[in-house]
Each structure stands twice: as C-alpha cells, then as structure tokens.
C-alpha cells in the first residue's frame, strides 16, 4: 500500500500543450525541453498535440480542453477583443517572422511596391501591415494591388503571379526560396513602421494562470531554449532523429535560422510592446476597443 501510494505521489503532473500547427522548427525549444528531460525534471508529463485545425488550439484552452496553446501575439489581441478568457503566459518567438518578400531586383524597399501586385493570405492584419509599411515609405497603400494567393506564397511568387508577397516567414519561405537558388529581397515588417510583436506565444485560461504547472512548464521551456542555443546542431540531429519525416534541408536551415529568435526568458513580458500593438490594431480598426493589458497578458515569475 505504501509503495503504491508513494508511486502515485511521484507521478508526473499531466499538462496538455496544443501547437499552432504541425511540428516544425518554430517549436524547437519545446522539442528540446522534451529531449533533455526538462519537463520531467519539473515533475510534468507534457502531452504535445498538433492541431487538427490551426484555428482550434486557443479555443480548446478557452474551453478548458487543453492547458496551454501556442498562438500568435496578434491573435491574442483579437481573442481579448472577443472576450475570450485567454491570457498570454509565455513567449516562444519574441520577434515578428512576417516579411514582405520579392524576387524582382527592382524591388528593394516598400516604396518600390507602388503599382505592384502583392500576394497575401490573411485579410485584415496583413492588409493593415502592408498599408503601414507603404505609408512609412511615403506611398499610397491604394497604389498596391492586393491579390489573395490563399497561402500559396512561394509558388505565386515563383510563377510570377505577383511581384511580392506578405506573410512569408523570414525563417521558412525566405529560406525555401534561397534553397531554390533564388535571391529573395526580404523586408522585415518591423523595419518599416509596423510595431514589433511576439510571433509565437503561449496562452492559458485566465482561471488557470496561477496553477503551479504553468510556471513549471515555462521553467522547463527556458531550459530547452538554453540548451538549444548552446547546441543548435546537436539539437537538430536529435529532433531529426525523432521526426525523420522532417529531416529536410529546409527544416535544417529553418531550425538554425530560428535559434536566435527564441525568447531566452519565455515568461518575460514586454508590456509596452503589447500595448503599442494593441493601439496599432485599434488604429487600424481591427479591434473594437483598446483592452487593458492585464486582461490578456501576464508575467509569471
């Protein structure tokens, strides 16, 4: 009986994390934390779940069907505007990944997009981002012809259907084009008037943010980031061995390119950054009101 009880007492606490997408190099610190036993060291049994639908993870957390979900900072603001009980508790990638990419050598800055066709996939946010970049460059956003390419960014660019695309990631699509022998012009959105934001964040249910297991998860994630930064190639080899279907040159390059972009302290919250981005969304009429930061983001230390 004692043995049974002690065994039960030592059981790791379960935690379900739903990813934003299928497993990819953007999730490296999570995978590394798992590889090195950082979750177990915190007494956690973390179940990492790729979503059946990328729109579902935060809503699963809101419905208490999962403990944590990976999502995007801009989405956190939208969820807050909707009144969903979701709070950002951690950051995975603390810089934007979004870019404008062109293959035309005549296009070097957003000013060169005047009269050009730009492919996009996500209405609202990408249009506002591009319009801000255009205004920053001193051109009329209306002079850019937007074409919905339905997530076929690189193929639309390679086929010449558009002159540039917005929404391609600097660590994925930009690398993909380079591997195809192209020399893409990559314009980082935050360099042209768009407020910087955290690309990937971790959200919890508002009623669960003080559960000890969330802090433990963030501690383990920080250990994963530290190990990844110290051993990027070794970590890649372990990841590729565990996920042989992902052992591609693109994923390898993306892995190495993304290492410097991971938050070294996942719990840390840049309050001004979130408030500035909230105002940006409000100014662009993408949210109905300015929601106080404490409603949707916390720092758990």
Automatic annotation (TrEMBL):
Stored Pfam families = NMT1 (PF09084)
Query: Which species?
Result: Klebsiella pneumoniae
Which positions fall inside the SsuA/THI5-like domain? 24-234
Q: Which GO terms describe its biological process?
A: thiamine biosynthetic process
- SUPFAM superfamilies linked: Periplasmic binding protein-like II
Protein name from the UniProt record: Hydroxymethylpyrimidine ABC transporter substrate-binding protein
Q: List the top taxonomic levels of the source.
A: Bacteria, Pseudomonadati, Pseudomonadota, Gammaproteobacteria, Enterobacterales
Q: InterPro entries in the record, alphabetically?
A: NMT1/THI5 (IPR027939), SsuA/THI5 (IPR015168)
């Amino acid at each position: 009986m004692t043995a049974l009880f002690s065994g039960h007492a030592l059981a790791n606490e379960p935690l379900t994390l739903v990813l934003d997408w299928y497993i990819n190099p953007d999730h490296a610190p999570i995978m590394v934390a798992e590889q090195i036993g950082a979750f177990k060291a915190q007494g956690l049994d973390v179940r990492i779940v790729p979503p059946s639908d990328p729109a579902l993870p935060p809503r699963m957390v809101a419905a208490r069907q999962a403990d944590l979900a990976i999502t995007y900072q801009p989405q956190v603001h939208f969820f807050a505007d909707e009144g969903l009980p979701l709070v950002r508790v951690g950051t995975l990638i603390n810089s934007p990944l979004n870019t404008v990419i062109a293959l035309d050598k005549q296009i070097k800055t957003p000013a060169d997009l005047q009269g050009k066709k730009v492919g996009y996939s996500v209405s609202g946010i990408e249009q506002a981002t591009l319009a801000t970049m255009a205004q920053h460059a001193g051109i009329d956003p209306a002079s850019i012809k937007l074409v919905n390419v339905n997530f076929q960014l690189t193929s639309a660019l390679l086929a010449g259907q558009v002159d540039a695309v917005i929404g391609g990631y600097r660590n994925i699509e930009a690398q993909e084009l380079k591997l195809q022998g192209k020399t893409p012009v990559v314009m980082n959105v935050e360099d042209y008037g768009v407020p910087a934001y955290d690309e990937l964040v971790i959200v919890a249910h508002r009623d669960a943010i003080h559960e000890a297991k969330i802090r433990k998860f963030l501690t383990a994630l920080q250990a994963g980031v530290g190990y990844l930064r110290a051993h990027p190639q070794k970590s890649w080899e372990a990841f590729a061995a565990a996920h042989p279907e992902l052992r591609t040159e693109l994923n390898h390059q993306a892995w190495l390119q993304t290492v410097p972009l991971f938050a070294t302290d996942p719990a840390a919250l840049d309050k001004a950054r979130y408030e500035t981005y909230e105002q940006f969304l409000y100014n662009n009429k993408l949210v109905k009101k300015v929601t106080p930061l404490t409603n949707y983001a916390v720092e758990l230390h």
